[in-house]
Amino acid sequence: MEPATHAVEDQSAVFAFLADPATHGGNGVVKRIDTHGAAVFLAGDAAYKVKRAVKFPFMDFSTLERRREACTAEIIVNQPNAPDVYLGALPITRDAGGLAIDGDGEPVEWCVHMRRFDESRTLDRVAEAEGLSDGLLDRIAASIVASHDRAPVHHRAGFAEALARIIEENGESLAKTPELFGGVRVERLRRRARETLTSVRSTLELRERQGRVRRCHGDLHLRNIVVLDDAPTLFDAIEFDDALATVDILYDLAFLLMDLGERDFRREANRVMNRYLVEDRDPSQTDGLAALQLFVSVRAAIRAKVAAAAIGTTEGTALSDLRTEAARYFDFAEAALTPYPPRLVAVGGLSGAGKSTLAAGLAPDFRPFPGAVHLRSDVIRKRLMGVAEHQKLGEAGYTADVTAAVYASLLDEAEAALRARQSVIVDAVYQRLDEREAVADLAEAMDVDFTGIWLEAPTETLVARADSRRHDASDADGAVVAAQAKRDIGYLDWFRIDAAGGPDRTLRAARSATGI
After folding, report:
1. What are the two backbone dihedrals, phi and then psi, of residue 214, each rounded to the nearest 5 degrees?
2. How far apart are CA 429 and CA 489, in angstroms?
3. I need a labelling partner for 219 at 20 to 30 A (CA). Which of 155, 403, 404, 450 fits?
4. What whole-number distance in Å separates Cα of residue 5 and Cα of residue 206?
5. pLDDT digits (tens, 9 = 90+) for 47-96
6. Can you list the domains of the chain with their CATH numbers?
7. Taking the CB of residue 65, how many other CB atoms lie within 10 A of it?
8. 310-336: per-residue pLDDT in tens?
9. β-pair partners for 106
10. Distance CA 374, CA 235 (A)
């Protein structure tokens, strides 16, 4: 049960009823899972989640009516993302025969009825047991974009002001444990967060007017995404306070990015960020990246605050673990706001050289977290032509005018990301001198460090690679590579890297070239 300071009602009879196998037909053991706000009972292929009769400053389930509303709200906010999991809000009723689930008697409690799923398939456990494959990461990003596309838009939520309050609340809470974080560090973090918010406030306000503040999931970390039939499914969204979940969509995403980064899945976080931008298909989304480090830092500070708040009621090994957890999140919050100058890297080479593989491998190495924005000419071409990423284009997609538009878009999007203080890696063939000069000129105009990398390998190797590609944004086959190889690339002052030896060796050489 909850401590007396928070629990306002005895729910033991209902909990005992739901924990009894006889309630569920006597088939097997009932598993109980407890959190600060709920008790969940897993029986057979069903799950019943009861809101605890507690009252916190941030969450009030102190009356039966509030718990009914919360159960109903949980169904409403979660069914769009997980329609096969969230089945309905049901009363626990009492009559002369005792308690029943959705009986004819008087409701004495309410529960969320869910379809049970394999708990080992939540992403935190999948990541720990087997890692997160690129294909799964791509599907995760697509699921989040789809969730954000469905989310109700709020044009007057005042998100920037709400974020300012969260920053102050974080600072006040963290300052209560100076022995854990240090008063000077807490104040420095709060000052940096304030300053960063001031610098991006106009961007956040514009994004709100553009419809990018929505009623989102609100609690989007690894434990709240489950893999069902290979499909990442978002569940357990915030239901008790719409304001907490009415946020900029990148702030919603930032919780997952922070959770991945804090667990040292930095490469995975970078891939999710970049796939999110690709799946969103709106290049102006890049402007919001100016606030991403702040979003990540605030999310980490909240986790540090929550862990620190639980220390007073914890003992033994769990207390030591909590202290370590709180300190780890605080360190991450600090690191996220450490400024780094953005850089621009261009990766060129004939089709099949491994440009996109190298760029994806190099992007997570850049600071600040979650790394560099990866812009790929093949993906931009498909977007400009209005087709799916893996849909083949005919000759009309490869005219000189279309190609010029692709390279112009690469420059525009790279400039937007650099203005947002994000490092950028652009990958394209860059076989023409004027294309290479244009990207170098952008770096000079933006006053950022530039590195040009040219990948090369024997033509027969590139032809074989191009012919073997499947499910890729590039349409180039061996014949295209052979035609490219006959053209003179002209003067080249980029780093030349032999890409014939495989992606790992190429990545090591590129890291050396960029000084990472």
Report:
1. -140, 165
2. 10
3. 155
4. 42
5. 999 999 998 877 899 999 999 999 999 999 999 999 999 999 999 999 99
6. 12-116 (3.30.200), 123-336 (3.90.1200.10), 343-514 (3.40.50.300)
7. 9
8. 887 677 788 888 899 999 999 999 999
9. 94
10. 29
